[in-house]
Amino acid sequence: MGGEKVTTPFYTGGCQCGAVRFHVEGALGDASVCHCRMCQKASGNFYLPLVSVRDAKLTWTRGEPKRFQSSNHGFRGFCADCGTPLTYEAPDGVALTIAAFDDPAEIAPRIQWGIEAKLPYVDAIPGLPGEDTMADQDAASFLADLVSYQHPDHDTDTWPSERKR
């Protein structure tokens, strides 16, 4: 009788410029979005999607976040080079920003926190008309030959590979 091979979940991710990269080995904890004003400011967005690392092993594989103490209990980690928000660190553990993962689609939020600060139009956003990027005729001329300097959504041996920082 052969047993099924048990595989440990493994995730990779990092910042936009590639100066900070991470691996997470093990099951992630709860995924959520937080609408509190502190998370809005830390992300520069309407809310901040986060996932708890819990008991999984988080390893910084390239660089490490710079940290800002946003309260007497918490720190916000971000890339000092490009500004990408990466962590929320509190007494109960570390959470990573979901969009910083190389495959964020597999990490779905299950709850919303801080709804007292939810911006009044957030729930209406999915009902707005949607278009592909190239449908923006005013931007099509520069988008047609756009070269992204963003780190790819996978680990690389070195970065940046072809351009100077």
Automatic annotation (TrEMBL):
The keyword Lyase applies. SUPFAM superfamilies: Mss4-like. The keyword Zinc applies. InterPro entries: CENP-V/GFA, Mss4-like_sf. Residues 11-114 form the CENP-V/GFA domain. Keywords: Lyase, Metal-binding, Zinc. It comes from the Bacteria. Belongs to the Gfa family. This is GFA family protein. The lineage of its organism: Bacteria, Pseudomonadati, Pseudomonadota, Alphaproteobacteria, Hyphomicrobiales.
